[in-house]
Each structure stands twice: as C-alpha cells, then as structure tokens.
Amino acid sequence: MTEQIPMFVEDLNDAIRDTIKALGGYKKVGADMRPDLGVEAAGRWLSDCCNPDRRDKLSPEWVAWLRRRGRQQGVHILATFEARDAGYAPPKPIEPEDERAAMLREFNRRAAEMIDLSKRLEAAGVLPGAANDA
After folding, report:
1. Crossing angle of the two packed helices 39-49 and 26-33, in degrees rounded to 10
2. Does residue 42 contact residue 30 with C-beta atoms inside 8 Å?
C-alpha cells in the first residue's frame, strides 16, 4: 500500500518530513544524502535533523537537495509548500525536453548576436574582414 501524499502541509517541517516519506523514508533518503554514515546512521541523522526537539537541523543546502530530489522523483510537496507559503502560485516543473529546447534556443539567439556583432566590428574596421579587404 502506498502512502497518500498530502495536498496541503502546515509548516516547513511537515513539508520536509512528507517529502522524505514520499521519497522512501529516512533510511533510504538519509543514505542517499550521507553515504559516508551507512544506512542506519544516516537514517538516524536525517530523523534527528527533522525532529524539532533535536539540536541538529538540515542546512539550506540540504533542503535544496531534498527539493531537487523530489523534483526528480515527481514529488513536489516541498516546492509547493515553499511557493504557497511565500505567496507564489504553485510551481510548475520544467520537463527535461522543454529545458533542453529552451537552452538550445538561447544558444542560437546568442550565436546570432555574436555573428551580428562580428559583422558590425568588421564594418567598423575593428576586425579584419570583408569590409577592410576592398
């Protein structure tokens, strides 16, 4: 039986804990985050970091790691909570194909700008080229 992913969470700690649960639990996620500790110790470390009564907390970098890992696995609990909490619309994940297409469009746009600039520099006599060869 799979655990139901909540539509709304009360606070950031709940969003983090629910994301971890959806990604496979403290041991699995902890071992991915901290392979140097071993599965059991990493699970305890992550559980302690998520316990408000414990001193250890997740750094902003680890929270970002969880958000990215959630995105990779189709789990958007943390990103959705953060957006709503800050007054933004719910996030819309970018599909990898869309991202690649956007990067290619940007590359082509910049390449065209460089070609245009080099032609203008040639025409101004700054660069050697057809304008100076006449």
Report:
1. 100
2. yes
